[in-house]
Amino acid sequence: MSYRDTFVYRLSHYVGKGWQDPEYRALLFHSDSEAAALQMAKVMSGCALTWRGVAVAEGSTEPEFLAPYATRIGLAVSDILRVAMRRGAWVKAANGALPLPGDAVLIGANGLEHILTPTHLEEVRPGVWRLDSYDGGQVNLKGQCILARTRWLQWENGTLWTYDDEVCTKRGRHVVGWADLEKMLP
């Protein structure tokens, strides 16, 4: 099993779990007390925290990822970016490049950022890719959780866009770039 496959496999264990589940809280808030984790899990988006938690489970020793989140509230996305820059792992979405399974993909900007983790990418027709991912920061009837998602990607005028439909009419957020998993972990 490849490094990427192992990362995605580990993350698959948490799909469908939400803030009420002790395993979810242990993944996202691994260095926080149970009381703090429960309080944060109820209300905080877990998109970047999900990726960060799996990175720690896979052996990351980055101080930003190991610190209690209660001391870093609001910094999960920027922590991933900071570590990616420091490790030479940041890939800007440009020149037709596409993320790979396990990468921490940043979509959106200006307060609407989201981190997703690709699990499968397949070109479904020329210039359009189906992207399956596991996403923390999702909400179901019970609240914050991790869910499997499908989006479509298409390059338009030098920008890689996400779409919520295969015919690419319901544009979502643009892909800013991603942290290359293989350069992020020891």
- State the oligomer: single chain
In percent terms, what proportion of residues is strand? Answer: 25-35%
Number of domains: 1
Shape label = globular
Strand arrangement, major sheet: 2-3-4-5-6-7
Q: What is the residue-averaged pLDDT?
A: 96
H/E topology pattern: HHHHHHEEEEEEEH
Note the total helix count: 7
Tell me the radius of gyration: 16 Å
CA(first)-CA(last) distance: 17 Å
Instruction: Count the beta strands.
Output: 7
Structural class, judged by helices and strands? alpha+beta
Poorly predicted runs are none
> How much helix is in the residues?
25-40%
Biggest sheet overview: 6 strands, antiparallel, barrel
Description of the structure:
This protein has 7 helices and 7 strands; from the N terminus they run ααααααβββββββα. With 186 residues, it is an alpha+beta fold. The protein has one domain. A 6-stranded antiparallel beta barrel has the order 2-3-4-5-6-7, surrounded by 4 helices. Helix 2 crosses helix 3. It is globular and about 50 Å long. The chain starts with a helix and ends with a helix.
